[in-house]
Specification:
The protein has 299 residues and is α+β, with helices and mostly antiparallel strands. It has two domains: 97 residues; 125 residues. The longest helix has 21 residues.
Amino acid sequence: MTRHRFFCIVCTAVLLAAASAGAQQPSPPTNGNYLGSWLMPSEPQALCPPEIPALYQAYEIVTGTDMRQRPWGFAQTLREVLVKVSGDPRLKTDPRTPELTAHAADFVACFHYADQMADVPLHDEQGTYDRPYKLTVTFDPGKIDALLAKLGDHPWRDERPVVVPVLVVHGRKPPAYLLSAEAPEGAEQRAAFATAAGQFGLKFRFPADAEMAGWSVSLDHFPPSPPQPATGEAIVLGTLDWNESLPGWISQWRMRWDNVDHEWGVSGVNYDAAFRDILGGVELIASGNGSPDPDHGEH
C-alpha cells in the first residue's frame, strides 16, 4: 500500500467519525445568536425578576435574534410601555422620547424570543437568519417610573375602565353592521381591537346583540349619546365609515366620563389605527392626562 493511499484511507475514517459525532450533538441554540450558528454562541439571557407588572412588558415582531433589529425592537417596546404605564398616549410621539429610546437597552430587565414559524422546518441557514420572532421585552419598573418623572409624568395607578365600544361599521361593501360580540363580519376587527387594547394596557369587551337592543341601538336608530355605562366601564359610541377617495376609514367617537362629554375622531387610516384612536382617547381622558383633539386627521 502506497503512502498516498494509506493517507486517504485515514482521512476518510477521520471525517466519517467527525460526522458521526456531530450528528449526536444538539441543534445550536437560536436565542440571541447570529444565524443560529456554532460560529457565534447564543447570548445568555437573564431570567425575568418575579412579579413585574404586565404593564412594564411589551412585544414587537422582529427579524432574527441577532442585533439587526433588537435595538429597534427595544425602542418600540419602550415607547409602548411608557404609554401603558403613564396612561398618556402623547408620550409615544413626544419629541423627547427618541432620545430615551436610543438608550432603551439601559432600561431592560429581561427579554426573550419566540419563533413565529416554529412549526415550519428549517431548510437552510438563510431561512434561520430571516425568520420572524416575537421579541418580548420586560422593563425595570423603577427605571421606567424614573423616566416618567423626568418627562414630568407619573404611573397611572388608579383602576382602569373596561372599554365597551358601541360601533356601527359602513364598510367597502354593504350592508352596514353593528360591531357586536357576535357579528360574523367583525371577526378580524374584534381581533385588531384586542391587539390595540393590549398596547394601551386596557381591558375591553364587545357588547352582545341583546345588550345593544336593550340600549335601543340598531342600524335604524343609532343614539346621539352613549348609554349609561356600568360601574368600571367606559362606553364609546362611534361610527366607522370607509371612504374610497381617501382611501381609508373616517371615524367619530363620543364618550361621557365624570359627567363630561368628549368627542374626537380620526380619518384616512386603517381600522387598526382607528381602534388605537378610540383606546388612546379613552386612556387620555380616564387617566386625567387630558382630552383628545376633536379631529386628529391622518395618522
